[in-house]
Structures are given as C-alpha cells and as structure tokens.
Design a protein that fits this description.
The structure is a homodimer of 331-residue chains. Chain A is built from 11 helices and 16 strands. The first copy, chain A, has 331 residues and is α/β, with parallel strands linked by helices. Chain A has a domain of 207 residues: NAD(P)-binding Rossmann-like Domain (Rossmann fold). In chain A, the strands form 5 sheets. A 7-stranded parallel sheet of chain A has the order 5-4-1-6-7-9-13, with helices on both faces. Chain A has a 3-stranded mixed sheet with strand order 10-12-14. In chain A, a hairpin with a 5-residue loop joins strand 2 and strand 3. In chain A, helix 2 packs parallel to helix 4. The radius of gyration of chain A is 19 Å and the shape is globular. Chains A and B meet through helix 5 of A and helix 5 of B.
C-alpha cells in the first residue's frame, strides 16, 4: 500500500512517518493488513530524510503544494491506499491572510477529496481537524453533540473540511476519518506564532536550560494531548473499521484538562526548581484572552468508546517529550 | 437600495418579491431605512412579472445562474445593498447529482460571497438554509446548540454555506443572516420530487377538489412553517441589526410540530369531510422512513428571543394558504 502524507515536514508529519516506518502495515478497505510499500512525503519544503528509512518501505520526499498532492492522487497507475492530510495554513496565518487560508485549507482539501475519486478504490482519508471549530458561547463541558461555531477562519475552514469528509465518505468516494485535535503539548522545535505556543515553551525551554515566558495566569485551563498520543490516535483512526464510524466520521479526540499551574508542577518534578525558575511570568492580556476563550473541558465519549486514549497525566506528557525529543536528556 | 434575489422564480422567491414590492423599504448597514429602488430577480428560468410591478421599485428579471449573479455583484457601478440567496439544487437533486449539487450549492454560494467583496459596502446577505443540516442520532428536541451532522449532500452543502456566511460576516465582508427553514407547508403549485411534498399535497389538492396521496402514517410528526411566516421571517432577518447576531449568524427558525393527523383535522375544519375524503392513505415505506428520520421537535430559543415567529397553529397555516394562494377559494 502506498501512503500519502501532506504536511509531512511538520513535527506531527515527521512523527507519523516514523511510526509508519517502525510498523509498516495498515488495513485496507476490507480490513486486511497490507504492507506499506511506499510513503509519499509531501510538503512545501523538502521533508527531512526520516531516521530508519532505507530498510522497509520506500520513502519519497515531494516538494509541492496540495495541487501537487491532488496530481499524485489522480495517477491511477500508482494507487494510494491511505491519505493523511495534515497540511494547513495555521490559525494565525489563516486569520492574517483570508484568501490564502481559504485557498489552502478549503480549496486544497476539496481538491484532494475530488482527486481521490480518480483512485481505483476509495482511499482511507485521515483529516486533521482541531478543537478550533468550537467557539463563542459554549457549555462548561463540550460534548460530542455540541454545535461547533468557529470564531476564526481556520476553525471555519476545518469545519468545512469535516463536513466534506463526512459527505464524501457517505457517498463512498473516500473512507474518511476526521480527528479534532486538542492543543498539542509538548511540541518539539522552536516557538511559533500560535497563541498556544507558550504551553510547549514553558516545558521545552526550561528542560534545555533556556528561559521561557508564560503570558497567561497559572489558573488558565487547557485541553492538551502529547505528540506521542496524537500519533497513536492517527494510527488508531487509520485502523478502525469503517462500520464503527457509521453516520459521522468526525471524532473529538480525548485529551486532558490541565491548568498552567499543573504543567509547572509537572515541570518541577521532571527538572526541579531550577527548571521552574527559568519561566518568566509576564502577562500578555491579548494572549491570555485568546487562550481563556478556548474550551478546556470536553466529554469525548464517542472517542473513548472507539478506543482512543488520552495521556494518563501531565507527567507522562513531559516524560514522553524527554524520551522522544530530548536525545541529550534534561539539562 | 438595489436588492438581488437568487431563485426569484421559486414560490418563496415570488412571495418575497411581492412582500418587498408591497413595502419597499429595508434598513442599510447603519440601520437607516432605505427605499428599494430596484429588484434584480434572478433565476434559471425567467421569473414571472410580479403582480403590482410598475409602481414603486423597478423589477428587472434576469435569466442566469449563480455565476451571472456574481457578475452582477462585481459591478461596483450598480451597488447591491441586499442579497437574498434562495437558489439551490434541492435535496433529491443534490443527492442524485453529486457534482451539480456541489457546483451550485457550494461553489455557487462561495462565488456570491466572493463577489460581495467587490461591493462598495458589505451587502446584507440572507441565506436560506434548512433543518436538513441535522441528521443521524439526534436528541428528542433539537436545541440551538445541537451539532448538525447532515446525512444528505444537500444538508452538507447548506451547512458549508452557513459556516461561510458566518466567517465572511465575522470578517466584515458581508452582513450575513442564515435561516434554517422548517418544512414549508402549504406550498402552492404542483407536487415536486421532495419526500416532503405530500405534506402540502394533502392540504392543497383536496381544497381544490383533487385527490392526494398520504404515504406516511398519520402519527408521523413534522416541523413546519407556512410560506407567509417564512417570508415574514426573511423580512425580519433583513431588518435585524447586525449587533444582535454577534458571533453567530445562523438562526434555526421557529416552526410548529404537527402530526399528519393534526394536519388532516385542520383540513376537515377548512374543507369538511368531503375534502378529507379526497386523501388516499397509501403507505410508501421509503418515504415514510425518510420523513420519520427528520427531526420534528426543536427548541428555537434564540430565534424567539430575536423576535421570529411561528404560525400560531395549523389552522392558520391552512387559512393563509387559502387567502394567499387560492384566489378562487375552497372548492
């Protein structure tokens, strides 16, 4: 089976690639385990050579946009059994550039779905959505049947993608699975422009001897999932039989509700007072307001019934980061 | 103020046209009453000359599709203050022709919204959506915060339109208002291919001396609104100040829950046993199953707070039909 990953150079794309290389099998539409023969790793920048590539499935890096991805899917001679569509213009970017956000996040996703219709059999299609589909007046706990009313263009575009994945699946044109991701913490790498970036920085930087700024009050609650659990959820979603998703392909993933204070205490247990001393608490009212507007409590009953799992606690999230992303260990 | 109506040849389009001609004023973006100077009546077939045209606003019939409508909106020299976007490929049509449904209901709507960006000021934009956005496992009473999970392409396309109208409004590109319409009863004219068509036929035909078939059990519940109340809701939506819709432009309209038995008794009160005797009860299991899957109970609290009104009872629905659409009276 050939697998296409869009956004393969992103940190989740790289981790998913590594996971598929480590265990290169996925079920086909009939639930039969198929060996992955090739990973098509597409991104706008050349995806880095995955560690461990060479043995097992072939990995092919492709530099291009979602139109390039659609071209690949239209090539019936090289059938693609599974698509993991992770590429997107992120929240702040889609808000700053309305046209770019719609072109990539809506038209790009639609173009991929349309191209899937050229495939000899409907591909399994994993779509990364986000709890950013929720906004405005929300109940204290977001349920599976709570109406999403996005308050950003990114959330609107992700919601449209969810609706399309559902309808194309209902029509048998793809076999879709949409996961609404919590805030992913701890992201490896550098801070980015997302309002949530601090939540990774206040763990990642101090554990490497560097300073980080916390712009929100410590009582702020967040709904979080580790990169490791996110990749496990992607694989689980790709392995679920379609009949278990009847009528609705959208799954709000489980996560955990933590306060920033909880996160800081987990940092203390992992890196001591010295690590915590590297956090500067400097309130940024704008970021604090944005983060406070995000729902922090969910009851993701359907996902739990389907066997998706959150991290057991925030110490595990920190431990997974140290194991997976700090080869030099805690400084 | 110039007003553009898409789907102007449809029965609701015609009734809205008549209503705007009868009282040709609408508020502009600043809430100031503006005289309607011209009605642009667009449809794929030539909209009939509205009765009463000639005095008051100019009416211009335009034969074309939504691309034609978008061209009109891109003409800055003839600004359009209000758009009523009623045109759509209906439920059965969008289910039968997937590509046509997406082209008209999604791309066509998006094209109109994009064209609105050419206008000198963001037009007020009324979008006719439908309770067809709801489907699958639903609570006994659909609330304003119940998640829509469409089970038809029509419902999916309408939901995408809702999300776009919200996001374009949030960005200040239009001043949108989306109404989720109940099943509209009693439709004038001929039966169509909709599964709901019987609900109008069993009133309309017997009151004109003709037979009608009822394909569902009489205990079947439906969520209905009269054409007269629908047009009143359209005008109310166009008159509401934007600040009352903050954060969410989508409104599930009030309606009434009636059983088919209730409808038949209202027919008896209007047309006697003779009228009721013209209904043949012939169960069609397929139609019965489709209609039974539709939600029949809603708690449209937001709409009621905003001043939208349902018909007081089903007798009023029948009476409005006789007054508005049976110039010859009951036979």
């Amino acid at each position: 089976m050939r697998v296409l990953i869009t956004g393969a150079a992103g940190f989740i794309g790289q981790k998913l690639t590594r996971d598929l290389l480590a265990r290169p099998v996925l079920p086909d539409g009939q639930g039969r385990e198929q060996e992955i023969t090739e990973l098509l790793l597409l991104d706008q920048v050349e995806p880095p050579e995955p560690p461990g590539a060479g043995s097992g499935p072939r990995t092919t890096g492709i530099t291009g946009d979602l139109a390039t991805a659609a071209d690949l899917l239209r090539d019936r001679a090289k059938p693609v059994g599974t698509v993991a569509h992770l590429a997107a213009v992120v929240s702040a970017g889609a808000e700053a550039d309305f046209d770019l956000g719609y072109r990539v996040n809506l038209d790009g996703t639609r173009g991929l779905l349309e191209a899937c219709r050229s495939q000899p059999t409907p591909p399994r299609f994993l779509f990364a959505s986000s709890v950013a589909v929720f906004g405005g007046a929300l109940p204290p706990v977001v349920r599976d049947d709570t109406a999403p009313v996005p308050q950003t263009s990114y959330g609107a575009q992700k919601l449209v993608g969810e609706v399309l994945v559902n309808d194309y699946s209902r029509k048998g044109l793809i076999d879709g699975r949409t996961l609404r991701l919590p805030t992913i913490v701890v992201r490896p790498g550098k801070p980015n422009r997302a309002a949530s970036t601090f939540a990774s920085s206040i763990i990642r930087e101090p554990l490497q001897g560097a300073e980080a700024v916390c712009p929100v009050p410590t009582e702020t609650g967040m709904w979080v999932l580790s990169p490791r659990a996110t990749v496990a959820a992607f694989r689980h979603a790709l392995e679920l039989p379609a009949q278990r998703l009847a009528g609705n392909r959208t799954i709000t993933l489980p996560g955990q509700t933590v306060s920033v204070a909880d996160m800081v205490e987990a940092l203390r247990r992992a890196g001591g007072d010295r690590a915590v001393g590297r956090i500067r608490f400097e309130r940024d009212p704008m970021i604090a307001a944005i983060v406070a507007s995000w729902p922090a409590r969910f009851a993701p009953e359907r996902a739990l019934e389907l066997g998706f799992k959150a991290d057991p606690d925030f110490d595990s999230v920190v431990a997974a980061f140290v194991e997976d992303d700090l080869p030099g260990g805690v400084r």
